[in-house]
Design brief:
The cytochrome bc1 complex is composed of a cytochrome b (QcrB), the Rieske iron-sulfur protein (QcrA) and a diheme cytochrome c (QcrC) subunit. One of its GO terms (molecular function) is metal ion binding. Belongs to the Rieske iron-sulfur protein family. InterPro entries: QcrA_N (IPR045603), Rieske_2Fe-2S (IPR017941), Rieske_2Fe-2S_sf (IPR036922), Rieske_Fe-S_prot (IPR014349), Rieske_Fe-S_prot_C (IPR005805). The protein has ten helices and 13 strands. By secondary structure, the chain is an alpha+beta fold. It folds into two domains: 132 residues, no CATH class; 158 residues, 3-layer Sandwich (Rieske Iron-sulfur Protein). It has a five-stranded antiparallel sheet. A four-stranded antiparallel sheet has the order 7-8-9-10, with no helix packed on it. About 2% of the residues have low confidence.
Length: 349
């Protein structure tokens, strides 16, 4: 059907056209703000007091949780493992720090939200957009709005909320201050000492039995751990990294170093198994030359001459453990290593 065939009845009237033009001129008319509906706290002071106490309680819980965070950091050792259903075995430190810090932050957020929803003014205010430049009038208006907001928040009339909020906000940053403790180790003597001590027997790593002198043949290589250290211990890996011992038997006349001979027993010498380069376990022994080789970077030590470095990147000899025999005929340590065990100690210490 062409436009010429359209009847006059189907064409819009002048009144409809005028009305449609008016609608098109303002298709997004401002509907205005809905009427304000007061909350129960606005008309009942007892309800307002209950909300105030709830907010204060949340801020107080935040402070207590922050104290719990600091206490957990001090009380629980870093290697303590606990069983928590249904999580299983977890670190006591990580669990307690996460729960207490999460509770402290949650209570501050929940308290602020509850305060805003129940006690602060909830009247909507429409404000026209203005230029970005901060004119003196704008600055005056901002300060006036700030004063109005402070007054409407009731922070001046609710000292319980104000004081507990300031307390919670002041204590939460202490969590970050406490975490500064983990920036590095405290200046203790942990790197200087191992699990070896006077009277501790040498336990064969393969048989888990105490070693006798006759168990160590000339030219053989045996690995030992200190008495009392068990593989089931949760910190076994950390301790064996310093306590691992390498035992060889050399003819006494082949030992070149005087102190090494004095610290041995019938030619049985004990040295740290941990390479002084990057801490790899040494396991390759050449009985004809009495050399041990680190498989990682080929550092070579002469066990007949104080375990001095004869090749490779290692920086210093392997520490020696002074040994003897107890009254039951078992090999035992006569003290700790004569120097710190492991790599890069002097660079770190």
């Amino acid at each position: 059907m062409s436009s010429q065939e359209i009847s006059k009845e189907s064409l819009p009237s002048e009144q409809d056209t005028a009305h449609g033009t008016a609608v098109a001129e303002n298709p997004f008319a401002d509907p205005g703000l809905p009427p304000h509906r007061p909350r129960i706290q606005d008309i009942d002071e007892r309800a307002a007091k209950r909300s105030e106490r709830t907010v204060a309680l949340l801020f107080t819980l935040s402070m207590l949780a922050t104290i719990g965070f600091i206490a957990s950091f001090v009380i629980f050792p870093v290697d303590k493992i606990v069983y928590v259903w249904p999580l299983g075995h977890v670190s006591a430190t990580n669990l307690s720090l996460g729960l207490t810090l999460g509770l402290a932050l949650f209570c501050i957020g929940a308290g602020a939200v509850h305060w805003a929803r129940t006690l602060m003014s909830d009247e909507e205010v429409a404000d026209d957009r203005h230029a970005i430049e901060a004119t003196p009038d704008v600055k005056a208006k901002v300060m006036a709005d700030f004063a109005d907001g402070a007054r409407e928040s009731a922070i001046g009339r609710r000292p319980l909320i104000r004081n507990t909020m300031f307390g919670a906000l002041a204590m939460v940053p202490l969590s970050g201050v406490v975490l500064l403790r983990e920036l590095g180790p405290l200046p203790e003597k942990k790197l200087f000492h191992t699990g070896w001590a006077k009277g501790k027997q040498l336990i064969n790593m393969n048989t888990n039995e105490p070693l006798r002198p006759e168990d160590v043949a000339v030219g053989s290589l045996t690995f030992a751990k200190p008495q009392g250290l068990e593989e089931d211990d949760h910190d076994f890996s950390n301790k064996i990294a310093k306590d691992a011992l390498m035992i060889v038997r050399i003819q006494p006349e082949d030992i070149k170093d005087k102190r090494e001979l004095e610290w041995s027993h019938e030619g049985i010498v004990a040295f740290s198994k941990i390479c002084t380069h990057v801490g790899c376990p040494i396991s390759l022994y050449e009985q004809q030359t009495h050399h041990v080789l680190c498989p990682c970077h080929q550092s070579t030590f002469d066990l007949s001459d104080g375990a001095r470095v004869i090749f490779g990147p290692a920086g210093h000899p392997l520490p020696q453990l002074r040994i003897g025999v107890n009254d039951k005929g078992f090999l035992e340590a006569l003290g700790d290593f004569d120097e710190p065990v492991g790599p890069a100690f002097w660079e770190r210490g």
